Amino acid sequence: AQSVTQLDSQVPVFEEAPVELRCNYSSSVSVYLFWYVQYPNQGLQLLLKYLSGSTLVKGINGFEAEFNKSQTSFHLRKPSVHISDTAEYFCAVRSGGSNYKLTFGKGTLLTVNP
Amino acid sequence: NAGVTQTPKFQVLKTGQSMTLQCAQDMNHEYMSWYRQDPGMGLRLIHYSVGAGITDQGEVPNGYNVSRSTTEDFPLRLLSAAPSQTSVYFCASSTTPGPYGYTFGSGTRLTVV
Prior knowledge:
With 114 residues, chain A is mainly β.
């Protein structure tokens, strides 16, 4: 079975500060990892994904994430956040092979304050 | 290319009423699924389908029915609405298994009074 734990339910930061949103996963097989963003009253959109290869993955809006297999983590980072980054962020895992299912974490609400 | 379209966007139901949430995709995706989103709970899988005529239960299927008669459509039926079904519902679709994420609809906000 696959599962995802997002370690922080809320992360408040000031504008232009760096941020890290933490995600740990568990799976018995190889995995694909994703981060989604949900702006207020909207659906989810894909920020970035890890499939294989380089452990540092770059996404949209200046976000990046690092896959760490030994620590089973996929933390999301941004060196300098903007007010417009205020949103809920979801980490998700999908096992390799023929598994269609995407399992989501409970989300981290990032609030960027001026 | 519309992606995943959900209707309606908002709905208020009385306890015991039935309704169908519509979901349609125009990307020829095999996989379609329904999630509900509740505060602090993340997204929980209700039902999913891996192709026309094939459906299966997710982690919270009670009170919901689905069918998949075409590749494009995957409606979610509430047979007898309960206040516990007040939630935001998302439909998502994906192509073949593998390193693909989902494409999400914009959601249906349902309130059961």
